[in-house]
């Protein structure tokens, strides 16, 4: 069975607004599956479910 590859793109970390923090590895951006969606638990306000990035299913780096 072939598994479809998810496409990821960088989005601004909602926790630091792009300034760089521990949650985005001090880059100010996180890789998220496309199309990008704000976290449905917190609406982009940062919570444990989005890894404090504000995005649905951010890529763990």
Q: Which sequence of strands runs across the widest sheet?
A: 1-2
Quick one: overall form?
A: globular
Q: Report the average pLDDT across residues.
A: 93
Query: Alpha-carbon distance between the termini?
Result: 26 Å
> Structural class given helices, strands, pairing?
mainly beta
Unreliable segments of 5+ consecutive residues: none
Strand content: 15-25%
- Reading the helices and strands in chain order gives EE
Largest sheet entry: 2 strands, antiparallel
Given the structure, what is the number of helices? 0
The count of β-strands is 2
Radius of gyration using CA atoms only: 12 Å
Key words describing this protein structure:
single chain; 61 residues; mainly beta; two-stranded antiparallel ribbon; 2 strands; 0% helix; 16% strand
Textual characterization of the structure:
- This protein is mainly beta.
- It has no helices and two strands.
- It has strands spanning about 10, 30-35.
- The chain is globular, with a radius of gyration of 12 Å.
- The model has no long low-confidence stretch (mean pLDDT about 95).
Short description:
The protein has 61 residues and is mainly beta. Helices cover 0% and strands 16% of the residues. The protein has strands spanning 8-12, 29-33.
Topology (elements, then pairings):
Blueprint: E1 8-12, E2 29-33
Antiparallel strand pairs: 1-2
């Amino acid at each position: 069975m072939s598994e479809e590859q998810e496409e990821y793109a960088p989005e601004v970390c909602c926790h630091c607004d792009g300034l760089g923090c521990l949650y985005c590895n001090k880059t100010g951006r996180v890789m998220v599956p496309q199309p990008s969606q704000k976290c449905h638990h917190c609406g982009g306000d940062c919570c444990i479910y989005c890894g404090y990035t504000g995005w649905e299913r951010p890529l763990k780096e």
